[in-house]
Design goal:
Largest sheet: none
Structural class: mainly alpha
Helix content: 55-70%
Shape: elongated
Number of helices: 13
Number of strands: 0
Length: 346
């Protein structure tokens, strides 16, 4: 008979593995989650997938790009100017309200404008003021001549003049002030963008005032001029005083007075040019009535004397025959003209 060898050790090992694979009762109450649902399995470690690897690569690429852009953008790029318009609507409304109410206890630049001065609000304030001033000025001109025998026409030149005056004031005054502060070595460290932002928001008060100027009461219009100049001019004076107070007392006061006078002159110029009573215009309508021309009933005395001299010359026998005939013909023609002028119209 053939010998049969049985590996007892392997048999016993396989038996133990089979015993381990038997079903067991697991206490499910131990895996009840917070929501009261039974949870039989919990996962803590997840294997990496191809999707997560791609996301990690994308995030690293974006991080590298962001780090490469940490330097300031170039003056000729769009990103350079985009930072000046990065402002929210709530901030713009808050800055408009602050530019209308002067407060001696707080500085408008430090409490409202810094650290993010913008050009978005000032640009739209100036643009809106251009159209409100021009339209309201034409409305005031129309109301001043309504019901009178005058011909009124819309003046489009007011839009051009308003745009030139407002934007020139917004840019030239801050530029001159910034140049003066740089020349005098001011220690306030006011930037040109901050001064530009302050002047732009200071014009916001004139938008409602320009609409109220349509009311044709001279005393009311001048009161609005003073209110607008004092309130917004006061904000300018209080805000810009720290920039000039370190200079000599005389120079500081001259600069502050000039700032206030320029701001007041703008309001006075609006009132005198756009909202003054319009001068009456002569009507160009032609009348349909016929024009009757009356001729004089008697000829001019010099005409008779000239005819007599001509007749005397024509009867002179010493003159040639052709000459005498021409003189007679000219005399006859004059007599016909005189007859027509002396003839009374029917």
């Amino acid at each position: 008979m053939a010998d049969v060898n049985i590996d007892v050790e392997n048999f016993e090992g396989q038996r133990k593995v089979a015993d381990d694979l038997q079903f067991q009762d697991i206490p499910h109450d131990a895996f009840v989650n917070d929501k009261g649902k039974v949870q039989t399995h919990t996962f803590t470690d997840f294997p990496p997938t191809a999707e997560s690897d791609e996301e990690d690569v994308y995030d690293k690429t974006q991080l590298i790009k962001d780090e490469s852009k940490t330097g300031s953008p170039s003056f000729w790029t769009f990103e350079y100017y985009q930072q000046f318009f990065d402002v929210e609507t709530k901030q713009v409304l808050h800055r408009i309200a602050g530019s209308m109410v002067p407060s001696p206890r707080s500085n408008y630049l430090q409490t409202t404008i810094r650290p993010n001065p913008d050009l978005y609000g000032p640009f739209w304030i100036c643009t809106t003021l251009v159209f409100t001033t021009a339209i309201a000025g034409n409305m005031a001109s129309y109301l001043s001549v309504e019901g009178k025998d005058f011909t009124w026409k819309y003046d489009f030149h007011k839009v051009t003049f308003a745009a030139t005056a407002i934007f020139s004031y917004w840019w030239l005054l801050p530029a001159m002030l910034f140049g003066f502060l740089w020349w005098r070595g001011s220690k306030a460290n006011y930037t040109f963008l901050e001064i530009l932002c302050i002047y732009g928001y200071s014009l916001s008060i004139y938008i409602p005032i320009s609409i109220l100027w349509v009311v044709q009461f001279e005393w009311l219009q001048w009161i609005l001029v003073m209110v607008g100049a004092v309130m917004s001019g006061g904000v300018l004076v209080i805000t810009l005083w720290p920039a000039v107070k370190d200079d000599t007392k005389k120079t500081a006061w001259i600069v502050i007075i000039l700032i206030f006078l320029c701001h007041t002159s703008l309001a006075v110029g609006f009132k005198l040019y756009f909202f003054n009573a319009a001068a009456p215009q002569i009507s160009t309508q032609t009348s349909s009535a016929p024009v009757i021309t009356k001729f004089p009933t008697t000829p001019h005395p010099t005409s008779k004397q000239q005819n007599k001299k001509t007749l005397v010359a024509a009867t002179n026998t010493n003159l040639p025959k052709d000459t005498r005939s021409r003189l007679k013909n000219s005399t006859l023609k004059r007599n016909r003209v005189i007859y027509k002028t002396t003839k009374k119209p029917m």
